[in-house]
Amino acid sequence: MKYFRLLMLFTLLAVMPLRHGLAQGGFGLIRDSEIELYLKEWSADVIKQTGLPAGSVNIILVQSDDVNAFVAGGPNIFIYTGLLQRSDTAEEVIGVIAHELGHIVGGHLTRGRAAMENASYETIIGTILGVGAAILSGQGEAAQAVIGVSQNYAISKYLAHSRVQESSADQAALGYLDAAKVDPAGLTSFLKKMQSDELLPASQQSEYYRTHPVTRNRITALETKVEALSQKSYNVNSKWADQHARMKAKLLGFIHPPQVAWTYDPNANKIPDVMAYAVAAYRQSDETRAINKVRELVALEPDNPYYHELAGQIYASFGRLDESRKSYAQAHKYVPNDGLIAIAYAHILIEQGKEADLRAAIKILGSAQRAEPRSTRLYRLMATAYGRLKDDSRANLYLAEEAYLKRNMVETGRLADIAIRGLEKESREWRRAKDLIFYAEQAKLQKKDN
Prior knowledge:
Blueprint: E1 28-30, H1 33-50, E2 58-63, E3 69-71, E4 76-80, H2 81-86, H3 90-105, H4 113-116, H5 121-137, H6 148-159, H7 163-179, H8 185-195, H9 207-211, H10 216-229, H11 238-255, H12 260-263, H13 271-283, H14 287-300, H15 305-317, H16 321-334, H17 339-352, H18 355-368, H19 376-388, H20 392-405, H21 409-420, H22 428-449
Parallel strand pairs: 2-4
Antiparallel strand pairs: 1-2, 3-4
């Protein structure tokens, strides 16, 4: 099988809590510890009902104003920020996640799974975009130039599920939601929003509508099932409502900062309002207001690690590395196992460049690997730290790891071959370099066979 790589810029936002992915409607990943924690909390009981192993499902954010969600590269649920912004409740988001879990359990995974497992999340998205373009045009070369509306149509064609699969995923979702005591009406209310797209021209329909065909019969079937379940009591979680409001404020501030003034009160002393203005000011390079607002945010919840993390990002963006370091250190102290915060903290240590800082960063990044094994940024920072310590063999090993996650097998083999010459034989690093060389050779043989 031939796998296409899309020549687009994908930014893995591991160094910063969250920031704009790609400009002008492009696609990119958004990584944010706070939002990812919310999604994990909301979906934990639903995932438990599927029988999938705990911690096996990953929920990844894609920066796009379109509305969609899909499964690819294994048990990975990709959710567009446009969908989160369109949602009115946490239960609507959980309903979508439950539906995607139905696709995972039902084996309806996106084609090309073998090519994407163990790849970085950016590479998974790049593969989908590239293969989508190839499907649309019938030419692999088109994967190098996906643009405009045709890009969205190509993705839709590639990700589309059949009506049978949609019905199957719906029924599974209702079972998971009911067993988890999460109101299944959230799924139907979300689908009703999507159903309005059927009146629009195909080019203007949301991606969710095109990839998950929403019909009146489908909604009626769901409503009938929900009504039959409605005598059961469902949990009403006020914490989720608060988290949902915070999430939407944060996303709007990062993705559409000018719109914050239309939605939030600049004088309000509530978390969503202060959050939205702190982030919007940062995105608009208003240093004074961004710092004042993020300090106000931290003062509202001084023990919230994610607001110290946001402060660290804002300080770093304006070159205030000492203040950034203090904020990240505080965040890391509160949640030492959070991989994204650890990576961000390590990045600041590496930027400050002292030998002790470099060694501390390597230790922090080593621990973060367990939480973020697919982070290309982590391996790039590891390589940078070892390079500055003049340890070229380990620097090349981690560059090889980065290339492997990006599925650049030629570079993987080349860099691992250089690295292994300077590593102690039979050491852990030496064995890993041998593995990477083997994977690169296997990829070369497979390419010849195809």
